[in-house]
Amino acid sequence: MNNEIINKSSTIGKYLFASIMGIYGIQHFMYAGFVASLIPSWIPFHLFWVYFTGMALIAAAISIYLNRKAKWGCFLLGIMIMIFFAAVQVPVVVNSHFGAGQITSACKELGLASFAFVLAATYRE
Predict the structure, then answer these.
(1) How big is the chain by its Cα radius of gyration, in Å?
(2) How many domains does the chain have?
(3) Which candidate, 71, 55, 66, places its Cα nearest to that of 15?
(4) CA-to-CA distance for 20 and 17, rounded, in angstroms?
């Protein structure tokens, strides 16, 4: 396959990923009450975590767009999403008796985290 096509595709993918993370971050602010309701009850300060997460998502998107500390931005984003997976998705999947929708959502989280880690590895800083 032509390397030029691969390079252009990976650049487009990088910016689409950053855009999606930025949109998720903005949605954390727009729908803070709803997002807070998704946080397990054993985690305190729900709104704080909603806003903190929203800012982290936006910061990661900006770091990718501006290519500033993008390696760290992607790596920390991957860590954050893995924490979501462990703290939110795993209990939901187990409590739903492994429902298909919940498994799909959990797999999406793993995919996003994986992409963030792979993207972090592509940066040289």
Answers:
(1) 16
(2) 1
(3) 66
(4) 5
